[in-house]
Design a protein that fits this description.
It contains eight helices and two strands. The chain is mainly alpha-helical. Keywords: Membrane, Transmembrane, Transmembrane helix.
Length: about 230
């Protein structure tokens, strides 16, 4: 991995996507605090923009970077799995910075289009507020919004997370299997204790074999006496 590597670029884009999502979360929390302050003051203290509308709008807009982070995380999991399973082939693959940016751009398009119909059916428009006896930007939602939201929720918020989790679990199982096989291979071929034990066993066996081959007989031939020498 290097500064211009595609995986490094993917991690950087994932961090940017998570940051955008956190910005929407913080904005939503701030809008909720303003909304509570209005309610507690019995609307004697109010703000130029309706806090409730900002709260709902940022909550819906935050789904776009949330889906984008899902897709980028899945891509990184697949790349990590390929790096473990096929290390030599993966090194030769041309997964460059430009390719990572192109894939993330495609993911941005998918994330925006997956929730754009819901955002188009809601807006912040000037409305008269009876509690304040004045007009200010407030939330407007189309009657068709809930139907469209239910359809999009089924396709995006239910199916997409399930598919990404299945892919990531499969990648983890595959990596675990190949890492265990690689560990066994290195343990058998690179363990010096096992090599020394096998070497000593071979050396001991060869020494025993040589001793048995060249050992002198236990009962040597008897010496000839004087009678035996007389023929």
């Amino acid at each position: 991995m290097g500064l211009k590597d595609g995986v490094t670029t993917s991690f950087m884009l994932l961090a940017m996507s998570d940051t955008l999502y956190l910005i929407t979360v913080v904005s939503r929390d701030a809008a909720f605090a303003f909304m509570v302050s209005e309610i507690l003051s019995d609307y004697k203290k109010w703000y130029p923009v309706e806090p409730y509308g900002v709260y709902i709008y940022f909550g819906n807009a935050g789904r776009i970077p949330y889906v984008l982070s899902y897709l980028i995380t899945t891509m990184i999991a697949i790349l990590r799995c390929l790096c473990v399973v096929w290390p030599i082939r993966f090194k030769s693959l041309a997964f460059s910075k430009k390719l990572a940016i192109a894939l993330v751009s495609l993911f941005i398009f998918v994330a925006v289009m997956s929730y754009l119909p819901v955002l188009l059916l809601m807006d912040m428009t000037f409305q008269f507020d009876t509690k304040l006896n004045t007009s200010r930007p407030a939330l407007w939602m189309s009657p068709l919004r809930e139907k469209v939201k239910n359809v999009i929720w089924t396709a995006r918020s239910a199916v997409l997370p399930f598919i990404t989790q299945v892919i990531m679990i499969s990648c983890v199982v595959t990596m675990n299997k190949h890492l265990k096989s690689s560990y066994r291979f290195r343990h058998l071929h690179d363990n010096p204790s096992l090599n020394s034990i096998s070497y000593l066993a071979t050396l001991t066996f060869s020494n025993v074999f040589r001793k048995k081959t060249f050992q002198q007989p236990k009962n040597p031939s008897p010496e000839l006496t004087g009678k035996d020498l007389q023929v």
